[in-house]
Amino acid sequence: MQSGKMVMVACGWRHTISVSSSGRLYTYGWSKYCQLGHGNFEDHLVPHKLEALSDKFIRETASGWGHTMALTSDGILYGWGWNKVAGFCSLNFTFK
């Protein structure tokens, strides 16, 4: 993994999200609810770059029990993972 220095880390229940100094997002851990954002339920023991947001600069990230959020430099908030009400599991769920 050639990600550079990690400058931000957020932790969910059993997953971790980190942001590199170049603004790239990496996720790893348990993915029962797609909270890693790789489009599947596959667990990752080492950090994997989130390709779906690879063209975005991540400014902030946060995580909860089974979900992940990322705020880009252009002000768009992306969310994915478990949501009892809406059931979002893909990166196309966005807030402005």
From TrEMBL:
Protein name (Swiss-Prot/TrEMBL): Ultraviolet-B receptor UVR8-like
Coiled-coil boundaries: none
Organism field: Pyrus ussuriensis x Pyrus communis
Signal peptide: none
RCC repeats: 23-74
A Pfam family: RCC1
Alphabetically ordered keywords of this record: Receptor, Repeat
